Amino acid sequence: MNPKNLAVLALLTIVLVAAALLVSRPRSTDTPKAVDTGESVTMLPGVAEKVPGVTSIEMKDSTRTLTFRRADAKSPWTLGDKHNYPALADRVNTVLGTVANLRIAQEKTSKPERYAMIGVDEPDKPGSTGKLITLKDAGGGVVASIIVGNSAEAGAPDPVSRNRSAFYARKAGDAQSYLVFGSLTPETDAMQWIERTVLQLDRSRIRSVTVTRHEDPAADDAAKAGTFELFRESEKDVNFALRGLPPGRELKEPAVVDAPVSVVGYVLIDDVRPLAEVDFAKSDPAGPVLPDAAATPFSRATVRYSTFDGLVVTAKVTRKDAKYWVTFDAAFDEKEVVPAPATPTPQTPEAPAPTSRKSAEDVKKEATDLTTKLAGWAYAISETNAKQLATRLSDLLQPVKPTGPEPVGPLPTTPQENLLVPLQPTPAPTPEPTPEPK
């Protein structure tokens, strides 16, 4: 065999040996394996088809567990941890859809000691930041269960959405973790899954507000009356007036009466309970009040709001377990409807322009919708909003000016300090007599 053939044979041998070594070498479980961006590799095969049968979603972190429930695919999601109060359906369905359709961007570690680096360790483990999401069917069977880790960014975009957003995840019970496409934040604070704005009553619609404080002692002073009414004659009036202003008294300023009016423009809640758990016929004591406090102490109250188009909303507010609670009732009252201003004509050019009003049918539907949403629930609100609802009439009025001469302070102790007493001239000292010479 000539030298040339020997060289070719030697080179071929080296190539074959190298290939054999490469094939036989064990693959590291931490070596990232990129997914072909032209494909869609599902992390949880078959789960998407089972979504209609999912009736429970559990989210668990190191401190809390949150459970969502529904009767079937057509029923609304509710929060089991908040007495089955309605949950934000769109947000819950987004979590369900994201988990069921996860696509793998890259394989990651399968070593438990490295899970904490990407946040996919078990929530029960001390110091864990992993969030466990479990989907269950009506029989309690587990449809899927994954641990959601840290957010990241995929090296290549999602082959479906072209989005690079990603996070780390691992099937519960499996060693292998993945970088998956998408974005998911399993928040376990129940109030983050509730529509916290429960009522928005536009101030421009409100015609009258009647405040009744139930715990104020009887008083002869009209400014301390337990009930008072604020009103507007028409929508054109900017400010509300006080019906039956006590003689000799004045409002602090025209806008001060907005305290019990504007509070229902945006009612934001901090907690929710079934109505049966909060007794609005009594109130826990609010604690001591300083004698020089700027406002009167809180009192259990009922506030009735009436609009120009006949909507009546009644709020009751009380204090229980160091929180302030409110409940609402809505109805349509035809007697409260104020006729809309006449449309101006060439013959009556001075007539006011018509005001946009809801029809009676629309207001009836609005009242029904509000009742369906709010009836049977008590909502925790801020102390500030509770005191605005339970405003006392005297808090809206200028303080009473004292009658009689203005008091004066103590007189100076010496004439020199009292400017009202003229100083007496100091007598000249008497000269001593000159002694006679001896």
Explain this structure.
The protein has 438 residues and is of the alpha+beta class. 15% of the residues lie in helices and 25% in strands. The chain has six helices and 20 strands. The strands form three sheets. The chain has a ten-stranded antiparallel sheet with strand order 1-6-10-9-8-7-2-3-4-5, with helices on one face. An eight-stranded antiparallel sheet has the order 14-13-12-17-18-19-20-16. Strands 11-15 form a two-stranded antiparallel ribbon. A hairpin with a 2-residue loop joins strand 18 and strand 19 (323-332). The N and C termini lie far apart (168 Å).
Number of strands: 20
| Share of β-strand residues | 25-35%
Q: Helix-strand pattern, N to C?
A: HEEEEEHEHEEEEEEEEHEEEEEHEH
Strand sequence of the main sheet, in spatial order? 1-6-10-9-8-7-2-3-4-5
CA(first)-CA(last) distance:
168 Å
